[in-house]
Prior knowledge:
Layout: H1 15-28, H2 33-36, H3 41-47, H4 56-79
Amino acid sequence: GDIIKDVKFKTFGCGAAVATSSMVTEMVKGKKIEEALKITNAAVAEALDGLPPAKMHCSNLAADALHEAIKDYHQKTLKV
């Protein structure tokens, strides 16, 4: 499978949104795409030693954005 060599993010949000997005990038570098697809919001929050209940939605956003980016990558590479 394809290995994720580099990953970036852009977010306009609170500190928790930045932290969860940044953590996702660290979690997926060097992993196979199939492994990255298994990353959940709970895994992101756990990697950050937890999030306040009011900020748990940020981990959803980060995990969802990762999954959408992978889907976009697959769509672009299949068309070539």
